[in-house]
Every structure is written in structure tokens, then in C-alpha cells.
Structures
1.
Amino acid sequence: MTTYEAVIGLETHIQLNTNTKIFCSCKADSWGAEANSNVCPVCTGLPGVLPVFNAAVAEKGVILAHAMHADVQNVSIFDRKNYFYPDLPKGYQISQFFKPIALGGYLDVPIPAEGDNEAYSRKVGINRLHLEEDAGKSKHAYGKMQVDFNRCGVPLVEMVTEPDIRTAKEASQYLTRLRQLLRWLGISEADMEKGHLRCDANVSIREKGSNVLNTKTEIKNVNSIAAVEEAIVKEIARQIKLAEKGEEVRPWTLEWDDDAGELRKMRSKETAADYRYFQEPDLLEVKLSDKEIANMLKDFPEMPLERCQRFEAEYELPTYDAEVLTADRVLSEYFETAIKAYGGDAKKVSNWVMNDISRMMNDEGISAEQLKLTPQGLADMLKMLDEKKINQSTAKSVLRKVQESGKTPEQVVKEEGLGLVSDDSAIRTVCEKLIADNPKEVESYRAGKDSLIGWFVGQVMREMRGKADPGVAREVLQELLQG
Ligand code: ADP
Ligand code: ZN
Ligand code: MG
């Protein structure tokens, strides 16, 4: 029996988070706005208007290209891609075809271990990145087609991979890493549900070990990373079934129906010739000197994977911790600032960030930017813990109180009297009274029931509403009980 493998290439459309659209001064993001409320003569293509290129789009495109190790071009050109569809009022889309902004590159995608399969890394080649404008949106309602032009002219980067992806899982991991990277770089919200990140998947199969590229299909209209994975799994299965029956795969464009969880044939594939591409006469070339490119990249950050590996090495953190902490750039910076301010055990800081702080962020629905507890505040709180000025459960409640009040941990502890009493005499008074009131327990303890010390410490803690230093309480009790 033949063993097959899948060959997959992804075309992603990434919405850049610039303030304005790519060729006019309409706002770029109009998520949730009333239909056709964010348009002008340029983005709706009225006759006689001229597009003006938004330089911020080039800058974000260059940053993305650099992150993908692509070769940024000193000269790129806009072309018209001609086709008719009601959501495209100009009758063409301004895109790049002959000379895109960047060529080549790759993304290293870690694939986690699963079942018997060990973890590995898939290097996904990038063919090209080009800049383009988005088209509008259309839908059918009440037996009519309705169009909304708000999205016309929204800046996109289209990024096309080489057919290097072999499984549905690799495809979803590629998208997960890409989404992380886009947010890390601050160039896109990268929210698939909002269409900020869209993905078409090209799928074919071949005999395992062969190098041929067989006829592929293209899957469109997938709105989540999980759906991309599911759609690819189904398409691979469909193609293998065809092959086993001796039938051919036709070069179809398939549409994913998320509600039904199935693929439908949309149309037969267009070819480049159908679009009659030609250079956009109303726009200049995009010229970027090496110096301008370098300037756009001057604040380019450390990348998530590098930071993850550095955290493991520099702070001796488990891989799992380093991955969680670097899933989000702000969180990774939060951790690193806190550990520098604290100067103690990095694992302790990591535990607090990954457990209590993350839990609080989840409960309150806030992101790392919205934390009122500053990294310095966390460091101060950990020092109070180390110095036994507060105990573990107080620290947990202080976290939330800081978030509610915006006060520092010290202020909260002081104002609410949450500090631990390690003052011997106060604890001693409580212990003496406890011993006097409980002659039976004292007798059992003295007769050899050592474990009762825990009960005594517990009583002291209760009496002092958790604020006694349990270590001090134990020592004092032992001394008095020996008596
Ligand atoms: P087309 O001209 O049909 O749009 P492209 O060469 O532009 O094809 O490639 C589009 C995407 O399809 C790319 O991501 C590419 O890697 C992928 N691709 C190309 N050939 C195949 C194939 N035989 N099987 C799967 N994916 C492929
Ligand atoms: Zn406009
Ligand atoms: Mg193509």
C-alpha cells in the first residue's frame, strides 16, 4: 500500500495596525463601525482621485520582512490586479506582483511532542511578501447582496510560504508562531476572528519520499487556527481517498464551512493571466535606501524564540517556564524587570508570574500592560516575603488589593495591618495564655505526643489572625512547653 505525505503552502494576509489606510487618510481599523461609514473617494475608487502611499505601511512591512529573514528590496512596485467583484469598487486591487517589497526568508517553527512523536522544528521557507490594499466585504441578506466598503484600502501584507509544510499540525503551529511574532513586533493585532490575520491553505499529496508537486487545492474562508488545522486534515483525507480510487485531484478552490465543519467547492482556480496584472500608473515606486531600511529596524527587538532560549540559559528556568513567559512580549519584559529588581531566585519570580499573577490576569480579563503591580512592586513584595514581613497567603491577597487600589504592596500591607508579627513578646503573650488554657494538650505533648506542636502553632495563628510568624511561634511554644 502506498504511503502518502501532504504538501502544504500557506498564503497569509496580515492587516497592519497603521493609523490610516494604505492610500488615503481614512482610519485603517473600523472594526464594529457602521457599514460604509469609513470611506472616501480614494478608497472607493471614484474617478479622478489619486492614491498617496502611507509610509508607515512600508515601515511595518520592512519590520515583518526582517523578522522572517527575508530580503527587503530597495525598489518595489505597485501593480493593478484586475478582477470584477461587487466588493471591489475600482475593478482592480492595488497589490504588488512583479516586484514585491521582500523576497525569500523563513520561519523556524517548533512542533511540540505529541503521543509517540518527539518534538522537532520545521523550517518553513518564505517565497515573498508584498504590500496591498484590502477589498470590501459582501454578504447575502434578504435575497440581495450587501456590500460594505469600510475595509477597502486597509493595509495588508500578503506573505506566501514555500510548500514546505507537511502536516496540518505544522500549519497550525506556523500560524500560532506567526501570530505571536506579529503581536510581539506590534505591527498587527493578528486576530483571526476579526480578519486581522487570514490564511488560505494550499494542499496536495504525494507518495512519501517523492519530490513531485502534484495538483493542489486551495482552501479559503477559514476563521481560526483550529479551523485551518481541521480543514487541512479533511482535505488530505479527501485527496488520499481519491488517489486510492485512482481518481485525480482537480485544482479547485474550496470554501470552509465552519458551522458544518466541511469543505465545499467554490470555483475552479484562476491563473495569474486572468488578473491581467500591470504596473499601477498613479503611484511611484517604493524606494527604500539601505540607510532608511536600517533606520526602520533600529529598535528591532529580540525575537520570542531567542528570548525563550536566553531565559532558559540566563535564569536557569525550565523550558516550560521560559515558553510561557515569552509567549507575550510585555509579560517577558515584566518578568525580566522584576527579576532584576529582586535579585533573588528567578524561579520564584517565574512562579509568581506564571501562577498567581497570570491567574489574576485571567480572572480580571486584563493583559500584562494593565497590571497595576509594577515589576518593582512584585520584587518588593517578594522581599517582604523573604524577610518574613508577610506570609504567603497575605502576599496573594496583596496582589489583588494592589490591582484594585493602584497602591504599592508596602502601602497595602501597612494600611491594612497585614504585616507579620515577629515581635517575640506579642507572640509570647498569646502562647502563654494558650498553654494556660489547654492543660490537657500540654500534658499529652509533654508525655511525648510531639505532633501536637502543629495544633499549638495553628491556635496561635488563629488567635493572631494569620499575622504571626509561624517559625517564631513554634520556637516560643517549644521553649514554653519544655518548661
Ligand atoms: P498559484 O500560482 O496557484 O497561486 P503559487 O505558486 O503562487 O500557486 O503558490 C501558492 C501557494 O501554494 C504557495 O504557498 C505555495 O507554496 C503553495 N504550493 C505551490 N504548489 C503546491 C503544491 N503542489 N502543493 C501544495 N502547495 C503548493
Ligand atoms: Zn479612504
Ligand atoms: Mg499565487
2.
Amino acid sequence: MTVLVTGGAGYIGSHTVLALLEQGEQVVVLDNLSNSVVESLRRVEQLTGRSVTFYHGDIRNAACLDEIFTQYHISTVIHFAGLKAVGESVSNPLEYYQNNVAGTLTLLQQMQQAKVYRLIFSSSATVYGTNATVPYTESAPVGATTNPYGTSKLMVEQVLQDLARAEPHFSIIALRYFNPVGAHESGLIGEDPNGIPNNLLPYISQVAVGKLARLGIFGDDYPTKDGTGVRDYIHVMDLAEGHLAAMRSLPRVNGFKAYNLGTGVGYSVFEMLRAFEKASGITIPYQVLPRRAGDLAACWADTTLAKQELGWKAVRGIDVMMRDTWNWQRQNPQGYQS
Ligand code: NAD
Ligand code: UDP
């Protein structure tokens, strides 16, 4: 049996492929390389001593999916493929709905045709929008998303629930990630954003290697512990292990289930900055800027359900997140082009 990983060359995908291979799974990756390079998978092969079957293709291409489902006995699909830049989704909504929603519909139709009924979907804490209060539980209201990216995740969750209701064969888990950070402890694979990073930790680490001059802190007047935004940062290897736990639980899932993948702990921007400086020994220049449109003051997970039902919890703390981020960045100052 083989696991199909869509978007497996990307940041979270490549770390999850590594964890799957280490667990002895056979893995096929489908990725259009729109936001990744195949070098990530070469390094995964180097780290694990195992090989990955790679298809350079698009989830919107039904023929390509058909070929994979015909060629391999796929037991489970882990679906990471999609676009994820919030700002870009505002300026180019159709591209986002096309990739994230229409792409997922094509994938689901092909799964149905091939009688592949087990799916793990990359959702996001962004589906809670502005309706929920912290800590977010899975039963909190979803909706009130503030951008097309978030809405695309919400729409897919809705499609998955409707499908699971209509087709009882399906076992579907949506994993709502909080803020993934860090890298594999080897420093060989990590996050390699295109252009100027939108996310906090890639931005800080690019300041540390001199690629960017200083961090801009988006607001210090939020009603939080020190006025800066608070988030639930989770180590990408904890996240990868969360997918393995979800995969083990899929046979027990009738229909659709959503789980938070977070640590349950919120850190402010200043706390993240200080922790990075401690791990790297580098002082990060910064300036406080106005708030970024659409940002929430604070967001962190209630992790009880994933503990109870998936038997999983995050085990890596902020020091390990910072150590591994810095280890990857300093070994690969230009990302995979280094
Ligand atoms: P990423 O961009 O590194 O990985 C996504 C991968 O999908 C890339 O390799 C890209 O080339 C590929 N891809 C995009 N569109 C495709 C298509 N139409 N067909 C085939 N391949 C395609 O992003 P990531 O951070 O690894 O995120 C993985 C998933 O997790 C995404 O669905 C993202 O929305 C979700 N997610 C990410 C975060 C985060 O902060 N990183 C948070 C919550 C949810
Ligand atoms: N942030 C910041 N400067 C940056 C990037 C992010 O101050 O250059 C802040 C942002 O306002 C938020 C936190 O860091 O409070 C996490 O932002 P990120 O974009 O990484 O995640 P998200 O907002 O999607 O949760």
C-alpha cells in the first residue's frame, strides 16, 4: 500500500514525507513545483536512505491523478497541495479558488472513481475567522474568514463534510494547523519561501543572515501580554508526526473529523524575537510598524481533542523550534539554492 502526498515537495509536505518514509511507508508525491523545488525530496531521500516516487504534475489534472491511482495501490491521500499566501489571495482570488477548491474537487472525484476513501486534508486555524475565542476548540464556530485563502480552506472543509455524509465509505480528517515553524533537526530540509517572507520566523531568520535589514513588528498596541500579536507556533516535525497519528486513526473515523494541530501555548512577537536571538546569538534589529490588516490579536489551540482521539501532542518547545530554524537558515542562507 502506498500513500499519495500532494504538495509533498513543499515545506510541511517534505517533512511529512520524511516521517512517512521513516515509518516504512511507500510514498508517491504529486507536486507542480509552483512553490517548491525537487531538491527538497532529494534531501529527504538522502536523510532516510529511501526513495520517493515523484510526479511533476497538478492536482487539477484529472488524467495525471488517474494515472497515479491506476499505477499504484493508494491507501491514503495526504493533501497539502495548494496556495497559501494570504495577501496574494486577496489580489488574485480566482487563482486561489482554482487551486485550493477546484483542485481539491478534481482530486476527490478521482479518489472516488479509484475507490480511494481515506484522506487527510491540510486545513488551517484560519477557518475559525473572527468568530471564535481563544483557546480555539474544534467545536468553536467557523466562518467569518477575512481573506480568500481562509475562505478556500473553509469551503473545502464544507465540501469534505458533504461528501462524507453522502458517501459513507469516506474517512476524512481535516487538520487545522496553527503556525508551523522550524525545520528537520539535520538542517537539510526546511522552509524556503519565495521572495520576501510574509511569516514571522522566516523573516527573522533572513534578517539574521543579512538578507533583510530589520524586522518590522506589525503593531505593539494589541490587548496581549506585551502588545504584540500572540500565536501558537508548532514545530514542523511535530506537525509531521500529527499526520502519522491521523493516518493511524483514519480507520476509526466514520465520515469527517477536524482536529487542531497546535501546542496550546501562545507566544508574542517579542517573545519569538528574544528566543531566536538566544538560539542564534545574533541581535535582530527591528522597528514597530502599524498593525497589518486582517491580523488577529491572539490565536492559540485547545489541543485536548487531538490528544484524546489521535493520541498525539506536540513535544518540541520554543527553544527547539528556534534551534532548528537557525540550523536550517545558517546552513542554507539562500534556501535550496545555497
Ligand atoms: P508549500 O507552498 O511549501 O507547499 C505546498 C506545495 O503544493 C508546494 O510544493 C506547491 O508547489 C504545491 N502545489 C501548489 N498548488 C499545486 C497544484 N495545483 N498541484 C500540485 N501541487 C501544487 O506550503 P506549506 O506551508 O507546506 O503548506 C502545505 C499546506 O498546508 C497548504 O495547503 C497550506 O495552505 C496548509 N497550511 C499551511 C500553513 C503554513 O503556515 N505553512 C498553515 C496552515 C495550513
Ligand atoms: N508579524 C510581524 N512581522 C512580520 C511578520 C509577522 O510582526 O514581518 C507578526 C504578525 O502580526 C502576527 C505574528 O507575527 O502577530 C505571526 O504572523 P505570521 O504571518 O507568521 O502568521 P499569521 O499571522 O498567519 O498567524
3.
Amino acid sequence: MARLGVNIDHVATIRQTRETTEPDPVAAAVIAELAGADSITIHLREDRRHIQDRDLTLIGGVIQSRLNLEMAATAEMIRIALKEKPDAVCLVPEKRAELTTEGGLDVVSSGPSLKDGIRKLRRKGIEVSIFVDPDPRQVIASHEIGADAVEIHTGLYANGRHKAERKRELDRINRAVDIAREINIGIHAGHGLTYQNIHPLARISAIQEFNIGHSIISRAVLVGLERAVREMKELIK
Ligand code: PXP
């Protein structure tokens, strides 16, 4: 069975809207882990819009499973990762204006500039994956520069409005998975995955890890709201 990495960035986003201390992503990480998450994924963005440096340190210190740090391949982030030593790093492209990571990293053109950082991370025992579009060239290029795994961007599949569009994207993902298996690079997948669209991907046995955030946190808000309101009602009473 594939591992489930739970991305808890949105918990930090809620906290940052008030610049307060709740909800604490550290608590969310522990709860996700107790519920069976195989790893906790956080994205430390350059602009610190959600996850903060202290979250990275504390989550790394308290969780028993694995910490997967998504980050841009900048000198600052490589330095932080080498100091904090998460179990894994996922290199992602990052644009300040985007709502979330929009596309995979273009390893074909930027590969040589990533090589040194990847080598340093791996020397510290940190597993490195690269977030790429489901494109065989990107998968091969990731392997060539020494990544342990690729995380295949499932956003276009997830956003496909028609069945034919989703089928086309699923075929692309399957082709990328086949290439990854052939060259023996680890295979993860993520972005836009939901309770409705996970099934066809869960059937691809070669995918070793899914990283899912938005849909799980969205569901948590709804399934937890009733209890939260009841508890406040009790206090007022
Ligand atoms: N994988 C990567 C590389 C991401 O950047 C994100 C978004 O932070 C995810 C997975 C999770 O995506 P979603 O929040 O849509 O489940």
C-alpha cells in the first residue's frame, strides 16, 4: 500500500490570518500521525505565508513518522534543510504570486543548477524528490541529477473537467510511472487529490506515496465543526 503524506500547510494558513498561535500545525501533525499518516508534509515558503521556521523545527522534533519538507531549491532553503535534517525534501518551483504550487519543476532546463544542492542534501541522509509534471523527460532528468524520487504532479488530472480530459491526464501519469519504474527512481504523486478522484491513482501499485493537503484539511473543518460548535454552546450555557 502506498504511504499517505498529510500536508498541513492550511492549518498554518488559518493561524497566519490572525497572526496568533492557533491552530498550531504542530498539534495537527501529531493528530494526523495518530490517525495513520505515514508522513507529515510541510512547505516552508520563501515568503513564510503559512509554515514558519519554528513549525519546521518543532514538527521535526515531535513526530515519530517522517517529515517531508517541500521547498524551493534556493541557497537559503538548502541551508535550512541541512540544519533541520527532515527525513525527506521535495524540491518544488515557487512563485510569490501563486495560490499554490502551479506546475512541476523544469528539471530538463534547470537540472545542472540543482545537482549540487541535491548532493549536499543526500550526503546528510535526506531523501530528495523533485515535483515534476507527468513528462518522461522530466522523470529521466530527475534521475540523471541524482534525485531519489519524483513526485508526479497530479494537478491537471485532478482539475480535468471532463472524463476524456481526466483519462488523458491519467494516461500521461501512467506513462511517467512506467518510465520511473524502468529507470528505478522512487514514485510519489500529489496535488489536487480528493476523496473523489484518488481511486484511479490508488490502483497504480507502483506509486509509493501520495501527498495530500487541501482536501483532507477541508474535510477536517467540516467533520469537526459540529463538535466545535457544541462545545462552545456548552461553555456559554
Ligand atoms: N505535493 C506538492 C509538491 C505540493 O506542492 C502540494 C501543495 O502544497 C501538495 C502535494 C498537496 O496538494 P493539495 O493541497 O492540493 O492536496
4.
Amino acid sequence: MSVQQLERFRSLSPAEFFYRNKEIAGFSNPARALYQSIRELVENALDATDSYGILPVIKVSIDSGVIPDKPEVYLISVEDNGIGIPPDNIPQAFAQLLYSSKYVLRQTRGMFGIGVKMAVLYSQITTGKPVEVLSSTINSSRIYMFRLSIDIKSNKPVIHHKASFKKSNDWHGTIVKLFIEGDWNRAKSKVYEYFKRTAIIAPYATIILKDPTDNVVYFKRSTTLMPRPPKEVKPHPHGVDIELLKMLISNTTTTTLKEFLMEEFQGIGEVTSKTIIELLKLDPNKDPKGLSNDEIELLAKVLKEFNNFKPPRPDSLSYLGEEIIKIGLESILKPEFVAANTRKPGVYEGHAFIVEVGLAYGGNIPPSEEPLLLRFANKIPLLYDERSDVSWKVVNQNIDWSLYEVEKPAPLAVLVHICSTKIPYKGVGKESIADVPEIENEIEKGVREVARELKSYIVRKRKEREEVEKAVGIIKYIPDIAKSLSSIVNDVQYNSLSNELFKLVLKKFKNVKFKSVDDVVVSVE
Ligand code: ADP
Ligand code: MG
């Protein structure tokens, strides 16, 4: 008997896909979903401020007990003083998956166009409530308010309520409020760690966090220095494949191959464009839209293999710089020593990247066998999957800290920040970074650089300590010697003898800061 079975086929909307695969975006359980939602809102808030040169003021509140008999439901509210969102874009920005203003070559925290929508989706699945957004752009005279949810089948926004108010002052920014089922007790330590690390990497931000127990943490900005905002750049030829090439061709307004190469890519000037076209054996005046499939394939190959392009421009990147890193580490970790090293821009697979390394030692940092590792990608703290991250490998396997005079357990923290328009995340969780050799190499050089500075500090400190010990060893006998001498040499008084001897010893030990013999006697006792 032959059974003929017919499968039923259909396609999923992006919203339905993410509805079925929430864990891909970090929404695997109530604790993680609460943490992830807060993160997505805060990262959008920071992007809307520091990417435009605005000193961020971010207010976050997490409330429980907001719905009767539902203690597991929390209300998250995040307010920023950013550029705001034009009212026409608000519904899609918050309630249509894969809608973003960040699909350009410029470093931002987001760039996948799913972040806040996952929080909205999770909120609507677990509480049935819409998200509320209030926003005003910088020059607008009005504030717009929307209550939205996602139509999962069609991936389109549903507008439940819409209103606008006249602005009475010059406030601009965005406030987002959403209800979500969560687990504060289990999320708490990660949430706090996340804010602490955000304050380290963005010491120019003021962040106020109110938790469900009404505990308020105030991270006051410790500097007004800010990273240079990222600039949008054109693709580098080494990062181009056939599909991207086709898209560039279909969007271009240029009419000759020569102009197309010079206009649509970075790193191609008149001479390089001519050389490429000679390699292709094509007419420089050919219309790019008239290229055959074979010619496009050949062009992609030549662009990948040609080795004489200028390297990718780092203008698209917004790195912190050594000063800001040191301020961040100092203000939050309160160490006795800090160092930082921002590496020169590097390239992997046609993508520009910059690695920055910071180091903090001593003070309030608790000693541990493994250095406290603070990982960041495009200014986002990475808290999960530490051991599979390339930075963990460098800090714990490639580097022998004893070469830098570090004795474990050591009060040591190492910060690694990677900036790129394409971060090579390992896996979909976006929590750890792959061992790309070019990046690993720069991390290692950066860590060695700050470790060398630490070594000089430790050696200097040790010398100073040894000197003090030596000086103390001598000075503590001065009272006895002075007493004996003054008793045999009649015309010399004890006090002046003691002072003279003390001065003699201090001359020898320039770094010893005691004020009198009594000082030393007290310190020895
Ligand atoms: P992504 O951040 O990856 O672009 P999101 O879904 O998190 O994706 O956000 C979608 C878009 O909504 C952003 O690209 C941005 O244009 C806009 N947006 C979200 N939150 C804010 C905010 N607080 N201020 C300004 N724009 C925002
Ligand atoms: Mg986002």
C-alpha cells in the first residue's frame, strides 16, 4: 500500500520566527528576559546620546507589584535625553522586527534591528500589555506618545493609542515603559554587574537605577570627555561579496564602472580604479548596471584578492581612548594604579577594528587567582560565556603574569574593549568573541603594554617599600644612640644629636617621607 502524504508548506514572518526562537536573542527564561530587556532599552538610550555627542543622562526604574496578584510582573521604564525618534518611525522602530536606523557602516551598540522588539514581544506574550513610548526629537515642539504591540503573523505594528502634547520646555529624548514577566531575585546580580560595567565603559554618562526594592544607585558622570561619534563609511572592497556587489550596483547613481568603483567604495581612487578595470579587461566607461553575472563574480573576486587598497578607515569606529578608560576604571573600581592602551586600527576580512585594553591594580579590587576580566564589544558589557572569549584566552593562557611581577592571588582587573562595524561574535548569543588571529594579536599586544606599565609600578613600589624598611631599621636606633652619646659628650644635647642623625639618614633615603624620629618610633611600635 502506498501512502501519499502531502506536507503543508508556509513561510514565517520575522516576528513569528523570533516568537518561536526567543532564546536566540537572549530571552530564554524570566530572569534572563528581565536582564536582556533592561539591556536593550539602556543600549538604545546610550546610542541615542553618545553617538551624537550628547552627554547621556539615563534614568531606569524597575518596579514590582504593579499588577494586582501578579508579583512576577515588573514594569521597566527607561528615559534618555537622546535625539528622540520621529513620530512616523516610532511604531515600526518598536513593533516591527528587523526595522532599524542602524543598518549602516557605523559603530553602534545595536545594529541588528531586533533588540527592543524582542523586549516588546516578550512583554506582550507574558503580560498581554502594549509598550508605551514617549519621544520628542531635538527641534520638535511636540512630544508624541504611542501604545504599541506587534502583530506576530504579519510582523506589523498595532497602534493601540496615539497622542501628542505641546512641549513646555526644550526636553528631547525618549521614554519607554513596558511590563514584563521576570525574576528579579535571579536577575539582580547580573543587572547590577551590567550597570557597574556600563559605568566603567561610559564614565561620561549619568545613570540612575531604581530597583524593585526601591534601592537607588546613582552613577554620577566622572568626566565630560566623550568618545568621538562614529561616522558612516562606505564598504571596503575586501569586505564585499557578490550579493553586496549586486545591491551596490542596483542602488548606484553612477553610470560608468570607473565612477562606480571610486564612488561606492572606500579606499579606491583614480589610479586603483584604473588598475582594477585593467585586471578585469573591461571598458572603464561601461555602465555598472550592464555587468553580466560572470563579470560581477569576477569583479567580486578581484576586489577580494587585490592587495593594494588603502586599509579600511577607522572613522566609522567610536573608541574611548586611554584617558576615558582610565577615568572609568578609577571611578568605579577605586584601584591604586591604572593604565590603558588604545591600539592602532587593524583589519580583519575587510572590517576595521580597534582594540583597547585597560588595567587596574590594588586599592578596592579584591585579590583573585584569575584577573577580573571586563569585556566590552562596541561599548556593550559582555557578561556571559567568559571562558570561550578570545580575551579570556589571552589574559589567562597567553600571558604569564609572573613575568610582570604579579603575584597571585592579585588585586588585578583587565579591561578589553573591541570596536568594529562587524564584531566577530561566537554564536548567536552575542556574548563572546571568536579567536580571530588579527584581533587576538592586538589584544595580546595591548595587554602586554599595560602589563609592562604595571610591572614598573610594582617594581618601583617594592623598591620604595624596601627603602622605607631599611631606613626604619636604622632610625629606630637613633634614640638609644643619641641618649648614650649625649650622656658621655657633655656639651651635646640629646635633641639636637637625635635631629642631626635623623637628617643624615634621610639624606641617604630620598623617598622616605618621615617627619621626625618619633614618627618612626611610633610606626615601629
Ligand atoms: P537596533 O538598536 O539594533 O537598531 P532596536 O530594535 O533596538 O534595534 O531599535 C530599533 C530602532 O529604534 C533603532 O535603530 C533606533 O533608530 C530606534 N530607537 C530605539 N530606541 C531608541 C531611543 N531610546 N532613542 C532613539 N532611537 C531609538
Ligand atoms: Mg537596539
